[in-house]
Amino acid sequence: MSFEYFDQLWSKNVPNLQEQKIHWDKRAKEFSDYRNQVGEDRVEKLLNFFEQKGLSYENLDILDIGCGTGTYALEFAKKAKSVTALDISTQMIAYAKEEASERRVKNVQFAELPWEDIDLDAYGCRKKFDLAVAIMTPAINSRNSLEKMMEASKDYCFMSGYVDRHEKLKEAIEQNILHRKPNRTDFGLSIYCSFNILWLYGIHPDITYYTTERENDRTVEEAFTYYTLQLERKNSLTDEEKLAIRSYLKKQAQNGRVKDTFQSKTAWLFWRNN
């Protein structure tokens, strides 16, 4: 296989940046709430992972690509020399800055910048960082965005993403209300393409898999907002379909709450550029 093969494969999933920004702006509060509820275990696991790889935080300048509401960036900043965190979403960055202010974290810089458009030289970050991370973000979505991450780091890189994901209630909505098969074909694409492109460059990243299962518990309105945002990423929903989804969720609710089983497999890629 060649670089061109993976370029073509990846090009089938090129995001519209304006649509991405709108989507993540709408989900910013959800991510902020989720960070406060269940984020600590995930963060601690990753912090320990880097320490096991021999990284010494006090000497690290870290770049966090697609930082969201700052879940990882703020924890990195407790130990690292400095953290620069970027995201496409205005609202995500606003939550991240607010949290940094409340925690009085000084050595983290947040900026609203889409990774796909950033000019490394203009931004002054070519080979600036010891560690560049892209944690569960769609920002690494082409060979160019992957190579740009490697050019920003003078040493280590890390990325993570789903390779499989199931939400039983969401899949039931697709089948019973929208009358279509659940679309899971995109899961793992970025990991698959990144791993193989790195291999073609002669870089052999460590890969680790983690499985997760949890129960999500939301109000009917929270569930309606969550599922419609998820389902509209690929296909727009009509007003009739939205009404049907809301009605379906009300029927599934118990005491005004909607529960769903979430199962996933996540891959972690870690490598040294040289």
Task: Give an account of the 3D structure.
Helix 4 links the parallel strand 1 and strand 2. The protein contains eleven helices and seven strands. Helix 1 runs antiparallel to helix 9 and helix 10 crosses helix 11. It is globular, with a radius of gyration of 19 Å. The chain has one domain: Rossmann fold. The longest helix has 25 residues. The mean pLDDT is 90. Helix content is 47%, strand content 25%. It has a seven-stranded mixed β-sheet, sandwiched between helices. The chain is of the alpha/beta class and 274 residues long.
Q: What is the count of structural domains?
A: 1
Instruction: Give the amount of beta strand, in percent.
Output: 15-25%
Q: Structural class, from secondary structure content?
A: alpha/beta
CATH fold type: Rossmann fold
- The radius of gyration is 19 Å
**Poorly predicted regions:** none
Query: Outline, from the CA principal axes?
Result: globular
User: Strand-and-helix sequence, N→C?
Assistant: HHHEHEHEHEHEHHEHHE
C-alpha end-to-end distance: 23 Å
Q: What CATH architecture do you see? A: 3-Layer(aba) Sandwich
- The neighbouring-strand order within the major sheet is 3-2-1-4-5-7-6
CATH class: Alpha Beta
Give the overall pLDDT as a whole number.
Answer: 90
Quickly list its features.
globular; 47% helix; 11 helices; Rossmann fold; 274 residues; 7 strands
Sequence-ordered SSE layout with sheet pairings:
Elements: H1 3-11, H2 17-26, H3 28-52, E1 61-65, H4 71-79, E2 82-87, H5 90-103, E3 108-112, H6 120-123, E4 129-135, H7 143-152, E5 153-167, H8 168-176, H9 189-200, E6 206-219, H10 220-231, H11 239-252, E7 257-272
Parallel strand pairs: 1-2, 1-4, 2-3, 4-5
Antiparallel strand pairs: 5-7, 6-7
Helix pairs in contact: 1-9, 3-4, 3-5, 10-11
